[in-house]
Amino acid sequence: MSHLVERAQAGDDEAFGALYREHVGRIHALCLRLAGDAQAAGELTQDVFVRAWEALPSFRGESAFGSWLHRLAMNVFLGKRRATGRRERRVFSTEEPALLERPGERAQPGARLDLEQAIAALPKGARAVFVLHDVEGYQHGEIARMTGIAEGTSKAQLFRARRLLREALAR
Amino acid sequence: MTCVELRIRLEAYARGTLPEPEVSALEQHLSGCADCARFLEAAEPAPVGLAALPRSIAPAPDLWPDIQARMRPRLRRIALPGWLLAAAAILLVAVSSGVTMLLVRPPVRALAPATAAALSPLEAQYASAATDLRTAFDQARQQLSPETIRTIERNLAVIDSALAESRRALAGDPGNASLERLVIATWQQKMDFLRRAAALSTRS
Fold this sequence. Notes:
heterodimer; A: Rna Polymerase Sigma Factor, Chain: A; elongated; B: mainly alpha; 2 domains
């Protein structure tokens, strides 16, 4: 276990600040892609680090601190989604492909959506599966266990996300 | 739903226009059909450019001030660390040896009770410093677990007992160089132990 982690575990907030600076980019990138917008990603990232500070005494160093933090970020994201009742096992009744052209996220006329923008514009359920599978490298079985959806749902959502992305990027 | 039926309905699924019962049937089929899972992978492979996505994106503005404001000071209850247990064990051995040495010595004149007036100038300095360290420890002791506090107090009591014994022996045999060294060594042990205990409570 690194000296910084040990100091942060003992309550040293300067050491925790150093850990924050070391890992915030990676965690914020994950939160940004999962949440789909900058403000929500900022709030989520804050929550992750506050939770990490609170949970740090229970960190045993069995995995790298970065891996532990990444898994914690996933848990915070999924917990928030459950808490706010926005979890989507079925997204189709409320999330139409037209959401790819949400006014606030529409690209400039004539400009081509880049991949990052297209991911942000995906429907929530498809976006979460896409980020976890294609960006973060989780398998469908792991995604199913983490999010509580069926493995078949994860596969179908991934197909949907990739199809919508391909169409958005081809515009 | 059969494999053929699933493949026919994929377009509607992606568009979000497939009726709910068929969505469930399609997803259920995919959970158990490796052929259809492979078909989906081939029909829509991962988009190009994924590897170029940045792994790290710094938030703007910096989130640290808000995070720091939400961090509660941690009053962690800690267990006694290994080094302190080891120190206590060494101390007990040293104290036991000193006491044993006193017990096996030939009888000397009756031991005079130790009083503050009998303290040498060096001992007075030790006593003053020990009081300061003890105050520092007492001020921060609420941050330690009850078990840790009990262990520290128990060890301090052992040291004080050894100190009193060695000082009584010295009072009974003034000028005995071995006893003088034992008194000083015990003071040093007490100082070292108090210093570590105070640091422990401050750090946690």
